[in-house]
Amino acid sequence: MAKQEKELTVEEKLKALYELQQVDSKIDELRILAGELPQEVKDMGDEVEGLKTRLSNIENEIKECETQISDHRVRIENANASISRYKEQQDNVRNNREFDNLSKEIEYQQLEIELSQKRIKNATAELEARQADKAKTVSDIEERTVDLNQKKSELDQILQETKAETESLMIRSAELEKHIDERLLAAFKRIRKNAHNGLAVVKVERDSCGGCHSKIAAQRQLDIRSRKKILVCEFCGRILVDPELGTGKK
Fold first, then answer.
1. Exposed (0-12), middle (13-18) or buried (19+): which is 34, by Cβ within 10 Å?
2. Which residues have C-beta within 8 Å of that of residue 5, sequence separation ≥ 6?
3. What does pLDDT average to in each consecutive run of 10 residues of the chain (250 residues)?
4. How many CB atoms lie within 10 A of CB 169?
5. Which domains are delineated in the chain?
6. Contact 239, 232 (CB under 8 A)
7. pTM of full prediction above 0.90
């Protein structure tokens, strides 16, 4: 049968909490070194992907313009061929009605040519605009990719420099958490999450809370120094410990 783990004294709990706070604060410091870089890298990566999607859409629009121009050129060729054929037929008509009908067909084909020429002109202007957009988008992608790679390099360097220390501290943090009962650990994590600087456990400094700097009554300071109870700041809710905890002094 497994041996039951010995219940920690209040003083031992306070020491474990204070050490856990120190370890977690150091992890915070190492993460702060990276600053806004992780979010910047993500945002820049999203921007590059957005530009690539835009480039793909522009390229599809360019193909569509080129197809329209090609189609209308074919229509012009076909219309000119029809006009030549109708003119030849006019030389062999038997009456004025046939001649007039062929003239109307020629006129219709000429209108088709004018319409196709107008649409070629419009599609060519659109094509030139889309090609300019493509050139700018390609330039933007190249520029943003250079910036992104630089930011990634900076982030990778920081992470590499702090990786070993961070991993070691996280292992120590996990070990300390095992020795703190669940309710107390949950309270520690809740306070730490709500504190702007991540401090859940603070020492009494100059008769004040080391977190919010509110004055602490003399009798309450005596209770804190006795290390018989886990006490929190009445103003900010942080766990309070005496200044000499962890120094070996009583």
1. middle
2. none
3. 62 92 91 82 95 97 97 97 94 91 95 97 97 97 96 88 88 92 92 90 93 93 92 93 73
4. 19
5. 10-31+179-241 (no CATH), 35-160 (1.10.287.1490)
6. yes
7. no
